[in-house]
Design goal:
Layout lengths: L14 H14 L12 H8 L3 H13 L3 E4 L3 E4 L15 E3 L7 H14 L18 H14 L11 E3 L2 H12 L5 E5 L4 H10 L2 E5 L1 E2 L2 E2 L1 H11 L3 E4 L13 H13 L3 E5 L14 H4 L4 E6 L11 E4 L4 H15 L5 H12 L1 H24 L13 E5 L2 H13 L2 E3 L14 E5 L6 H23 L4
Parallel strand pairs: 3-14, 5-6, 5-9, 9-10, 10-11
Antiparallel strand pairs: 1-2, 4-12, 7-8, 11-12, 13-15
Helix pairs in contact: 1-3, 2-3, 3-4, 4-12, 4-13, 5-12, 6-11, 8-9, 13-15, 14-15
């Protein structure tokens, strides 16, 4: 057995995290090598004057990161090929194409979160089919999350419907409000997943002109009149891809047009958790009679939970169509991931993860603004998972091609485009690159490519 005693005297992180950090350092510096047996948890706790629970938590986290392996009856050993978690980061193409949050906060907590789920009285319910709206405890957690983190006053347990992530929620919403062949209005540049959904299900998308404040109300009225559409899907906060946040006056104008033209609103509220204080109320509260909100936990907690929530208007017919869609597409929402989130919502873990994600996103947004300067549109909040570089389509395609040759994956410039009146540019997703250092260098590379492209265009080069 290795006579190992970690140095945890420095730092302000929780004690268990300091144990894990000391273990990582000792592996990196060769003081611990593969096959070394660590002291039993109780013995190490005694040496360090800690509780067994604290040491146990550290061992669980170290095993999750791949540094150690535990064998019942034999002990805990330094794993073969033990290597730091960061060594697995940013391998392959640098991902600025997928709009995911920084994952480290969720990865730090998932092990303990699963341990706590084992102690839940309703865990056994997860092995059976859930009701189509989801288990009550999951819907209660969803309503609490929407109220606290999305500022939706109408969110209550009896109204909320669980779904399998935001994309599933959009599919359910469209199916409840439209039929294949119907026209659905959207921002002229929109979330590419909306385009994918429309292509698959046979909806016709009509892009509505956007100015610097978002959807233009006059253009919305004109499109509604010309197409006879009855559904508008919109991303009012940190719009994807442009990062525009609709101001209060613009929201009121849009609602006036929807009421005049009997339009239902599908509100994609994916990014509300990143909004600044004082951001105007959501459509679900401003126009509750005609808004079906879709929100999830992918952007602020963990995409892999595949957990979302629907908040329909107080219309039993719409609600019934949503529940029929749940039955048709998947029979019932998955309970196990929902119970994980329910536990995290109760014990504060969801808030800790979200707060860390938001803080990291703010740091990354400031970094992008500092490096890209005027080439980047300032987001409609102080932090965002993605930023927008407006530019002509030809320039966007050139930049995307240059980035690809440098092993940087960007969202295809035409991916968000629904209509020729759409703003063109390049969306940069900031969460997919693990380390800040790698992100900073990638942003500098993008800035240099953009400068090079501008210089080439100025000299007539292609």
């Amino acid at each position: 057995m290795k006579d190992w005693e970690p140095d945890i005297s420095k730092g302000s992180a929780p004690v268990y995290e300091r144990i894990v950090s000391a273990l990582e350092n000792d592996v990196l510096e060769g003081r611990l090598t593969p096959g070394d047996r660590l002291p039993p948890q109780r013995e190490l706790a005694y040496r360090l004057s800690l509780s067994v629970g604290t040491v146990s938590r550290a061992y669980v986290e170290a095993e999750r990161r791949g540094f150690i392996s535990s064998h019942v009856g034999r002990g805990t050993f330094i794993a073969d090929r033990a290597k730091p978690h960061s060594s697995m980061q940013d391998s392959g193409p640098l991902d600025m194409a997928h709009n995911i949050p920084p994952l480290d906060p969720a990865e730090r907590w998932i092990g303990e979160g699963l341990i706590r789920v084992r102690q839940r009285a309703d865990l056994a319910a997860a092995v059976n089919y859930a009701p189509p709206e989801g288990l009550p405890s999951i819907r209660e957690a969803g309503a609490s999350w929407l109220k606290r983190r999305h500022s939706v006053t109408r969110a209550t347990t009896d109204r909320v419907i669980q779904c399998n992530g935001g994309q599933h929620g959009l599919a359910l919403a469209f199916a409840a409000l439209a039929r294949p062949g119907d026209t659905i209005l959207c921002e002229a540049a929109t979330y590419p997943g909306i385009r994918t959904l429309a292509d698959h299900a046979g909806y016709r998308l009509r892009g509505v002109f956007m100015d610097e404040r978002g959807i233009d109300p006059e253009a919305l009225a004109r499109c509604a009149h010309e197409t006879g559409a009855k559904v508008l899907v919109a991303i009012p906060t940190l719009q994807n891809p442009t990062t525009i946040t609709l101001d209060a006056a613009r929201r009121a104008e849009i609602i006036e047009v929807t009421r005049a033209n009997d339009l239902m609103i599908v509100e994609d509220d994916a990014y509300r958790v990143f909004a600044d204080a004082g951001t105007p109320h959501c459509f679900a509260d401003l126009a509750p009679e005609r808004t079906l909100m879709v929100a999830g936990v992918s952007k602020a907690v963990a995409p892999g939970l595949r957990l979302g929530f629907l908040l329909p208007p107080d219309d039993e017919e719409v609600r019934d169509r949503l529940l029929l869609g749940v039955r048709a597409f998947g029979y019932s929402p998955p309970s196990l991931s929902g119970l994980v989130f329910s536990q995290w919502e109760q014990d504060g873990t969801a808030d800790r993860i979200a707060d860390d994600v938001i803080a990291e996103s703010e740091t990354r947004t400031r970094m992008a603004a500092s490096i890209l300067g005027n080439a980047m549109a300032m987001p409609g909040a102080g932090r965002s998972l993605h930023v927008w570089m407006p530019m002509p389509m030809l320039d966007a395609e050139r930049l995307s091609a240059r980035a690809l040759r440098a092993s940087i994956a960007l969202t295809p410039p035409d991916g968000p485009i629904v209509d020729a009146v759409a703003p063109s540019g390049v969306r940069l997703c900031l969460g997919g690159i693990r380390s800040r250092d790698a992100l900073e260098q990638t942003l500098r590379d993008i800035a240099a490519m953009q400068f090079s492209a501008d210089s080439s265009a100025a000299h007539g080069l292609v």
